[in-house]
Amino acid sequence: MHISELDTPSVLVDLDILDRNSQRMSDYVHSKGLTLRPHIKTHKIPAIALGEITKGAIGVTAAKPGEAVVMAEGGVQDIFVAYPIVSRKKADTLLALSDRARLSVSVDSLEAAQILAAASRDRGHDLSILVEIDVGFGRCGLQDDVSLVQLAHEIERLSGAHFGGLMFYPGHMMVPLEQQNELLPRVNARVESAYDALAKAGFETPVVSGGSTPMAYRSHEFSHLTELRPGMYLLNDRNLVTGGFATLDDCALTVLTTVVSKAVHDRVILDGGSKTFSSDRLLTGNHVGFGIVHADEDAVFYAMSEEHGHLDVSASKRRYSIGERLRIVPNHVCTTINMHNTIYGIRGERVEQIWTVAARGCVQ
Amino acid sequence: MHISELDTPSVLVDLDILDRNSQRMSDYVHSKGLTLRPHIKTHKIPAIALGEITKGAIGVTAAKPGEAVVMAEGGVQDIFVAYPIVSRKKADTLLALSDRARLSVSVDSLEAAQILAAASRDRGHDLSILVEIDVGFGRCGLQDDVSLVQLAHEIERLSGAHFGGLMFYPGHMMVPLEQQNELLPRVNARVESAYDALAKAGFETPVVSGGSTPMAYRSHEFSHLTELRPGMYLLNDRNLVTGGFATLDDCALTVLTTVVSKAVHDRVILDGGSKTFSSDRLLTGNHVGFGIVHADEDAVFYAMSEEHGHLDVSASKRRYSIGERLRIVPNHVCTTINMHNTIYGIRGERVEQIWTVAARGCVQ
Fold first, then answer.
1. Does A86 touch chain B if contact means CB atoms closer than 8 Å?
2. Confidence band, pLDDT 50/70/90 cuts, at residue A100
3. For residue A167, what are the β-bridge partners?
4. pTM of the model
5. Which of these, A357, A321, A330, A360, lies nearest to A255 by C-alpha position?
6. Is A109's CB within 8 Å of B140's CB?
C-alpha cells in the first residue's frame, strides 16, 4: 500500500530511521557494557518491543500491570514494572505472568513491597524488588539512605521477594547540556551514597537501573549504572529536537494530516488536534507550539482544538490547498501514539507494517 | 458492583448528576423554542447519545465520519458532521450511513461541498450542507457575506446537495460573563449580516446552528439561532467550574485514583497522569493545575507525568495513606474520556453502567 491510500490523520513510523536509532543505541550500550531495557510506554506495541530485544535489549520496562500483560501475551519474556504497585489486584495481575516472563518491580514503600511479596509468595515465586530512590525529580523514590537500607532489609525479610537493586528516574534532566552537567554530580552523589550505604549494610546491588532518552547517551556517566530505560530514543520527537538531543532526521514518527480549511486569513487548519497529537506542551526550547511542519519551516503550529490543528502561516511563502497533506513531527511521541488505535510502519512511500497499539488505554 | 471493586484509575459518571444536567438543558431549550443537537465528542458513547435524544435532543453532532459511523451503528438516526470533510473517502464513509440516519454537514469551502455532493449524488441522496461562518474564533468559517452567498449559490447548483443553513462555533466565548457580554453583540452583528445577505439573495436559512457549553444557557441571546450543539453540559469539568459556568455539584465525571507514593516530602503521587486525564491545561481562572481533588481543597494537582499525578499537599492538613483512593474532577472532560476504553456509570457507590468508549480513537 502507498501512503497516499491512508486516510488522515494517521501516524507514520519511518522504519529506516527506527532501525538506525535502534542500532545506534544497541552499539552504544554494548560499547559501554550497559544493558538496555527500553520503556514500552512510547509505542505500546509488542512487535516493536520484540524488535528492540532482537537488537540486544534484555527485556522491557512497563508502568502498569495491564501493559505488562499485553507485552507478555505478545511474547516479551522479561518485564520490569517501574511503577509502585500498591493494590493486591494489580499485584496478582502482574504475578500471573510469572510462568512466562521474568518479572521485576520497583517500590518506594513497605506497603507496596508487602503487597507484591504476598502475591508472589502465593504463586510460589521469588520476586525481584528494586527500590526507587529520588535523584532530584521529586516524584517517587526514597529521600535518604536510612529509609533505603531499612526498606531493603524489610524486603529481604519478606517471603516471596528479594532485594534486586536500585532504580531511579532522572526526569529533571531534559535540560540543556550545561544544566545537565550541573545536575549530574548531584545525581551521582545521591546514587553513590545509596550504593555505599547498601554495601555497608551487607547488600549487593546487582542492578542500578536509570536513564531516560535525554540522558541516554550519557548513561555511562552515571555512577554504578548497569541498565538504562529510555523509550523515546527509538522514534524521537520535537521535544528532543528542540532540546538538542536529536535531529529532525532522527525523528521516525510523523503524523500525516490533511488541510481542511483555509477560510481564515493567514491560517491553515489541519484535521488533527489534541485527540491526534495529545495536548502535551513543548518542554524544551521556547515552549511554544505543538509540532514541526515538515514541508514549511515558517508555519507555526500555534494552537489545537480537539480535532483541529491551527497553523499560523503569516510568515510562510508556501501556498496551501484544501485537501493537501502535511507531515508533522509532534511535541511528544509517547502521548501521540497513545491517541491512536493503529499506526503504520513505512519505508519511503510504502506502508510495510500496520500495528495495533495493543497496550493503548492500559492505564491500570 | 460497588465502586471499591473497580481498579484504578477509572472514570466514574454520576448518573444522578448526568440526569439532572440533561433535564436542565432539555427544559431550557424547550422553554426557548430551540433545538438541541449535542456534540458526542464529549462522551463518544452511543448509549449516552441515545439518552440525550430520549430527553429531547433532535440528534447529535460529530466531528469525524468515523464517529458518525459508531453513532449510527449504535442507533442514532440524525447526525450532523460539524467538520469540513475534504476527501472522497471520508465523504463516502459518511454517505454510506444515509440509509439509516438523517445526515447533514457543514463546510467552508467549495472543495468540501463538491466532494460531499459527489458522494451524495452517487448514492442518489440529497445532502443538507450548512455553511460555516467565523464569528470571531478564527479557526474555520467564511469571513464575509460575499463568499457566503457565493458558496450558498454554488451548493444549490451542485447535484446531490442543497443549502441547509448557517453554522458557527463561538469557541472564543469561554470567558467571564462581562467579556461574553462584550463579544455577544459582535457575534450577533456577524450572524445578522450573514442571515440578511442570504435573505437578500433569495435563500431561506432554515437552520442556524451554534452554541457551545459556556454559552449554552445564553443560546437564546444569539440572533436567529435555531439549534445549539453543546457537549460538556452533560458532565461538566474543572474548566467550566473555574470559569463560572457550572458548580462542583454539577460535575458528573470524576476520575477514581489511588495514592501510590508519598516518599517525597509534601507530595502525594496518584496513579493517573496525562494518559488518564489528558494534558489539557486549565483554560479559565488562574490556568494552573490539572484537577480538583474532591476530598481536599488544599491539595494542588500541580503536575503530571504520563502515568503519575503529582499533588502538592504542603498546604493540606489531611493525612494521606498509600493505597487510599481519591476522586478528581479533571480539567477537560472530553479529552479525559478519550483516554479510556471503558467508563463507569454510578449511582451513589454502586456501578450501574459499564460503557465502552466506542468512538474513542475515531480521529478519521
1. yes
2. very high
3. A132, A209
4. 0.97
5. A330
6. no
